Amino acid sequence: MVIIVPNYFTFWEGHYKIFWSPLFNWRPLGRAYIRLMGRDPDFLDTLNLVTPKKIL
């Protein structure tokens, strides 16, 4: 079995196509940053961030 998951430690956010710090995975900080970049942060709430506990 092969499980392919995103790398949350990357510095690129592919959905918004912007620079992204792993610190922004905390949603309030991420929403503020996305707003600062002139993008709509509502999409962030639709993402289901996967953790090892959620997989197993």
Automatic annotation (TrEMBL):
Protein name in UniProt: Uncharacterized protein
Organism (species): marine metagenome
